[in-house]
Each structure stands twice: as C-alpha cells, then as structure tokens.
Amino acid sequence: xxxxxxxxxxxxxxxxxxxxxxxxxxxxxxxxxxxxxxxxxxxxxxxxxxxxxxxxxxxxxxxxxxxxxxxxxxxxxxxxxxxxxxxxxxxxxxxxxxxxxxxxxxxxxxxxxxxxxxxxxxxxxxxxxxxxxxxxxxxxxxxxxxxxxxxxxxxxxxxxxxxxxxxxxxxxxxxxxxxxxxxxxxxxxxxxxxxxxxxxxxxxxxxxxxxxxxxxxxxxxxxxxxxxxxxxxxxxxxxxxxxxxxxxxxxxxxxxxxxxxxxxxxxxxxxxxxxxxxxxxxxxxxxxxxxxxxxxxxxxxxxxxxxxxxxxxxxxxxxxxxxxxxxxxxxxxxxxxxxxxxxxxxxxxxxxxxxxxxxxxxxxxxxxxxxxxxxxxxxxxxxxxxxxxxxxxxxxxxxxxxxxxxxxxxxxxxxxxxxxxxxxxxxxxxxxxxxxxxxxxxxxxx
Length: 446
Ligand code: C2E
Ligand code: CA
Ligand code: CA
Known about the structure:
By secondary structure, the protein is α/β, with parallel strands linked by helices. It has 16 helices and 17 strands. Strand 11, helix 9 and strand 12 form a beta-alpha-beta unit. About 35% of the residues are buried. One calcium ion (CA) binds next to strand 13.
C-alpha cells in the first residue's frame, strides 16, 4: 500500500475521532482543546540520520507524548512530523497553555533513540472547542493557524486568535462597510473595569470598541482598526469613541465621579495636526474633568516618531489628562528617552502577565517595569489577569492597578454599571480577594 494512502487513512481516522469529540461536547458547557504538535527539523533528521533512525525517533516521540498525556487524552500522528492531541476537560486558554508548556518543558530532557540521546524541540498550536470553532474542521484550521503563528514567532506554542485568520476571510469591501457602520451607528463601546490592587477600590475602566456588522456579526477591533487606519476612517472612529466615552463619563452616577475612563488612541491619530484640539474640544463639550480621561497609546506608536508624539502627549498631559503607554515592554523603548516619556501610566503587555507565574524571564521583566515606573512616579497597570494566583502575585510585586477576565470581561454600558453596583455592594471600599470573575456577562466580541 503506498505511503500516501496510509497517511490519508491516519488523518481520516483522526478527523472522525475529532468529530466524535465535537458531538460528545456539543450542547453542554464542557470544552476541550486540540493541540497540533510539530517536531522541529524532522526532515533534516531524516536526511542526515537516515529513515530508520528517524522512525525510531518518531516512536520515541510518540511514547514521550503518551507519557506526558493524561489517561483521558487522545493522541494521533497526523502527518510526517505532526501529532494531534485531543484534551478533554480543558476549559480555558491558560489551562491549554499549561498543557503545551508541560509538553515543551519536559522535552528539554533528551529522547533516547537507539541508545543515544537526541535533543528535540517542538512547536504547538492550540485551539479550543467551542471558544474558537464549533465544528471539527474549523477547529483543526484554527489549531493549524496557531501552529503556523508559533513557528513564525519565537514562541514555542501559540493559542489561536482571530488575528491569525487568513486575510481572505476578511477580504470584502470593508472600507465601504466601515463607512456604513459609522452612518448606521453599528459601533458600541464596552467597558472593562480596572481596580486598585492594594485596596480593591474601583479605579476606572477601559473603553473597547465593538463593531456589530449586520451580515458578518461581530468584527474584532484588532481586525478592523488597522484597516480603518490605512483608509483614514480611523479619524472619524476615534472621534466617535472619544465622544461616546466622554458621554458615558458625564452620565455616571455621582458616587463614581472619581473614576477614570481610558480610550485607545491609534498610532495614526498622533500625526493628525489637530489631534490635541480634537481632544480638548470633546472634553469641553461634555464638561468632564481632564483627570477623568486617560488616553492609551501603544509603546510602538510612541517610538515611531518620538519627537511628534512626545510633543503632543506632553501638551495633553500638561492639561491634566492621563497618558497611558499600552502594551509596554514590547516596543523596545530605550532608557535614553524613557526619562522624558510624557506618560502618567505604564500598562504592562499581556504577554508578560500571562506567564508571570511560570516564566522567570517574564517575571523579571514585570518586576523591572514596576520598579522603573515607581522611580518615575508612574502608575503601573497589569492587564490580562485571568486568575487569582496571577492577581496575588502582581499585588505582591507592587503593581498598582489590575485589569483582566478574572475581574470582569469588557461589558456593554448597562451591564458595566450593574457590575459596578454589585461590586461596590459586595466589596465596599476595601477588598483583597476578587470573587466576581464568573459573574460578568460574556463579552460577545472577545
Ligand atoms: P488593547 O488596548 O491591548 O486591549 C486589551 C485587549 O485585551 C482587549 O481586546 C480586551 O478585551 C482583552 N482582554 C482584557 N482582559 C483580558 C484577559 O484577561 N485575557 C485575555 N486573553 N484578553 C483580555 P479587544 O477588546 O478585542 O481589543 C483588541 C485591541 O483593539 C485593543 O488592544 C486595542 O489595541 C484595539 N482597540 C479596541 N478598542 C479600540 C478603540 O476604540 N480604538 C482604537 N484605536 N483601538 C481599539
Ligand atoms: Ca488598551
Ligand atoms: Ca494592551
């Protein structure tokens, strides 16, 4: 029987197992993870060591996977150097990532092939059912896209995100639709709470845009914002976002008067000549205090044109606005101009927070950012906090403000106000533990 036929057969039997898994999990609240594991440089090994040894390596690798897996996990070889794993009872990305980390970490121990040790590395792509796709075929695509992403980056594993969608998926006349979205009022702002780590007091909220497209459902901001930036529609969208956030601020009940709302400002806005005027006018119209508004600018935007961005942001900061440097730690800003940074706040990038408990390097980076911020009298925000352990760790490390799914997901305005009411009722002014994580309504667009 030709090899291709055998291979085909292996894949087919895996697909039918995957479909079984989906059928078994459909409808109930349970989720499972699909991992695709690729052995790096396998072709090279095959060429230089010969196919017999390569076959032995595959056998050793399969045994290795079986050894790290739990009894309920299912493993299949699905390609030359690819294995798929179906992991039941995995409920979130963090949990699935832990499985991938365990797999990758234990591989640091060499595999023994024909009595000789061989160091093998692997990449892992992760997709979750039903979070990422609701049928087997799509789930498989998501895991493959995640695997590609991990191979193209320096990460040894990657969880699927919409960002990894092939471009064709969004290849429609989006500019046209974006224009209609502005006219038809299809945007909405969701709010995600931020709380003071030390006291538990509410600090504010980040406003995150949502686009409900009539035909295509929710479109994520990280998909349409870059397109709006290149078409120029970002100016109108930012105007809309600022106005909506300010309107929301001035409509808040009196007891929330001290809270801040953070608005994301795209890179392109800093090169708009009248950006500062636009902000000043909008704040004037709604009559809110400058100190209640925070502008979030990504670190990479800031370093693109240091002199312009420093000048504009410096101007806005001197009026009393808060300036937050978003995704901090990823933009490679050098110490030389860090001292002149026109900011009031640093927001540590989620990628560091995600691994602060299990990765020494990330922990070190987070600690350094916290120390730097305190030296420059800047507030430090950690976003992407998904569990109590990470929350506690950041508190212990001296971080000021926390944001993340563990506290609450981004919510529509009314749900947010309701959440705030509940939070204040149950937590009062001073709390250490957050127990509201699962009470917030799901964020429909991520
Ligand atoms: P960002 O500014 O870094 O926003 C944080 C993103 O992380 C949000 O995604 C938020 O929903 C998500 N997030 C919050 N907590 C957690 C958590 O615990 N775990 C995980 N995995 N994710 C968490 P979202 O809303 O999809 O926004 C994505 C990006 O789109 C934003 O990244 C921001 O760059 C951009 N964006 C959103 N709204 C606007 C806007 O109004 N204007 C502009 N220019 N950009 C926006
Ligand atoms: Ca942000
Ligand atoms: Ca961010």
